[in-house]
Amino acid sequence: MRNKEAQIMIFIKTSFVMILIWLQPVRSWAEPLFAEAPDLSAHVLNIMNFLIKIVAMIGVGAFVVSGIMYLAAGGNQEMIERAKKYVFYSIIGLVLAIGALVIIRTIGSLLEGA
Prior knowledge:
By secondary structure, the protein is an all-alpha fold. It has 2 domains: about 1-35; about 40-114. Helix content is about 90%, strand content about 0%. It contains 3 helices and no strands. The chain has helices spanning about 1-35, 40-70, 75-114. Helix 2 runs antiparallel to helix 3 (about 75-114). It is elongated. The chain starts with a helix and ends with a helix.
């Protein structure tokens, strides 16, 4: 049984070395392609910017909906108070989203400079 396991391990190691030798010419012409590829920090910053923009759009949508609620209240004080509360919270959400965007852009510029 051990002889069979040893043969399998030798086969795997030999196959791995042969693949590495075979890929050596590919690595030489593919090297410039990888040099131009963005690094992980650029991808993370792009994802964060995208998510913050989505949150900002949701905040603007909530602001518009709360304004419509205020206009459609028709003198109902409970609905007016609820609409005012929604306006307040949507403004806080927008301020937080803009603040997060500023922080992310600052961190991005610091990472690009390093």
